[in-house]
C-alpha cells in the first residue's frame, strides 16, 4: 500500500487558506482603499485595528519560549508593533485619528491570546500576518502612496530586510522543516484559516462602520 506524502507545510498553508484569503482581499473596504475610492482616514482606521492584533501576536510569540516547532521562523525584524505606534502618532499629528476598535479585532486578540504557549497554532497566525505584510502589504503601501499622496506614516509596511523575495523563500523553506506532528500541522493550518477569516471580518466591520 502506497503512503501518501503530505505537501510541504508552506504549500499546504497556501492551498488550505486560498478561499479565506480571497474573501479577505476582495472585501469592499480594502478594494476601495487600494483602488483610490477610500481616504487616508481609512488607512489610519486600518492601522488602528492592526495595533492590538500585533501586540497580541508578538506577546504570544515571546511567551512560547524556545520551542523548535516555531523558533526557526521567529525574527524580531518582523515585529510591527513599534512601527504601528509610530505611524499612528504621525497621522495624529497630521490630524488623522481613529480610536474605535471593531468587534472583529476583539475576537482576533482573544484568539491570539488563547494561542499563547501553543507553538503549532502560532505558526499559522505568524504565516498569515508576516508573509502577508511582506507580500500584499507592499501592494497596499504602493497603492495608498499613489492614490492619496502619502509618503510618511507607512513604516508598518517597511522592513529592515534587504531582499524580501529571498527572505520569503527562506521563510517558506523554514516552514517546511519545522518538526511538527500531524496534529501540530493540522492545528497550524486551521489557525491560518481562522486568521484570514478574522482579517476579513475586520474589513467587514470597518465597512459597516462607514469608514472610507
TrEMBL record:
Pfam families, alphabetized: Heme_oxygenase (PF01126)
Gene3D superfamilies for this protein: Heme oxygenase-like
SUPFAM superfamilies: Heme oxygenase-like (SSF48613)
InterPro entries xref list: Haem_Oase (IPR002051), Haem_Oase-like (IPR016053), Haem_Oase-like_multi-hlx (IPR016084)
UniProt keyword terms in alphabetical order: Heme, Iron, Metal-binding
Protein's name according to its UniProt entry: Heme oxygenase (Biliverdin-producing)
Lineage of the species this protein comes from: Bacteria, Bacillati, Actinomycetota, Actinomycetes, Mycobacteriales
